[in-house]
Design brief:
The structure is a homodimer. By secondary structure, the first copy, chain A, is mainly alpha-helical. Chain A has ten helices and no strands. The structure holds a DNA duplex.
DNA sequence: GTCTATAAGAAGATAGAC
DNA sequence: GTCTATCTTCTTATAGAC
């Protein structure tokens, strides 16, 4: 990897572990394998490295949003897919979201950095909210709206149903960010959650 | 308020807004109304101020736990109370927990500080987990266990039911910590959540 | 582009007068 | 217990050789 990219990559790792103020330019340089002054040939300041991380993240989020909405844009096609969705497929959706959030290396490090820096800069709090609260609720809400319309799920309040689906996923994610050794337990809980969710909201109750 | 107490109080406010590393001893002193060197007549270092905050919090948490468990310890008395619980009472329980977390000034500042510093010190992550994840789940789980036994609620998995009750409360709390102007909306969502929860789990379905 | 040497400044902490 | 003056250390950033 070229040095400029390696600098932002190692900086993100360190920022996500200790926060911006507790990471020194010399720490970043050491992990890159150069000395601190050499960093300044690539970025004009420590802040510029941080800004480059934010920019890179924006680029990735836009890419992802594009990928996620390929089907979302064509609601009629999605309705067909979700009409006959099974419990196992519902688990797959939830687990997929959870595993992506937890295991995508860039996403995980970036979220941890946001968590630490969120009160320091209001813009970062907004990015966190959009990425891990509002966007997932909107996206999942749209899918569940289709599933209610097509008669797979039943509720008179899709937003609350979506909250009931997503809030446990969100909470388990924040648990695993703090205590990664609880991941195996979290995955089991997640599966039990979705099975129960399906029993509660499925249109054809057994 | 005496100076020593005012120091930890102002320090907690600043740490919760900016994080430990971004607060200088001179900032704390300024808010207390003295100069930086005077701080050292009360605490031997900046770290000692931080430690005093943690200690004070431990003291408060123990007090609260004692208060909360007055009834919890006598399960048979609680069973009687929760046997005929109404939807409004369920909303009162959830709202009470939410409002306490959100509006108790010490709790709110302390939680924000923990949120920022959690990856910096594993012990802080554990305190956060215990206070805002594990203890509420255990306590609510015990109450719901009683309610299932007494026939008010119905489920074959109390832990997941408790997760369904608490995870939305937790998520709404983290939203309001970041974006306080969304509190009014959060309270409405919370009430709608609990009404739906009650419909889903109530033993006497209407 | 990387290095060594070093400037510039910030922040924690101490000394000693009052 | 509070102040001013100061020390010390750490950290960002620059200068200039290679």
């Amino acid at each position: 990897m070229d040095t400029k990219k390696k600098i932002v990559d190692e900086a993100l790792t360190l920022f996500s572990e200790r926060g911006y103020a507790n990471v020194f330019v010399a720490d970043i340089a050491e992990r890159v394998g150069i000395k601190a002054p050499s960093i300044y040939k690539h970025y004009k300041s420590k802040q510029a490295i941080f800004d480059a991380i934010i920019e890179e993240m924006n680029r990735r989020f836009l890419e992802e949003a594009g990928a996620l909405n390929i089907n979302g844009a064509d609601a009629s096609a999605d309705a067909e897919v979700y009409k006959h969705i099974s419990e196992e497929q519902l688990i797959a959706i939830g687990s997929g979201l959870f595993m992506y959030f937890l295991h995508d290396d860039y996403t995980r490090r970036f979220r941890k950095m946001l968590t630490i820096e969120q009160f320091h800069d209001r813009k970062l709090a907004d990015v966190y909210m959009k990425q891990y609260v509002d966007d997932p609720l909107t996206y999942q809400g749209m899918l569940f709206g289709l599933m209610v319309t097509s008669g797979v799920l039943k509720t008179d309040n899709v937003d609350i149903m979506t909250l009931h689906f997503y809030a446990p996923i969100y909470m388990l994610m924040t648990i695993c960010d703090r205590e990664p050794e609880r991941e195996a337990e979290a995955i089991k809980t997640l599966e039990a959650h979705i099975r129960q969710f399906n029993r509660l909201y499925s249109a054809d109750k057994k």
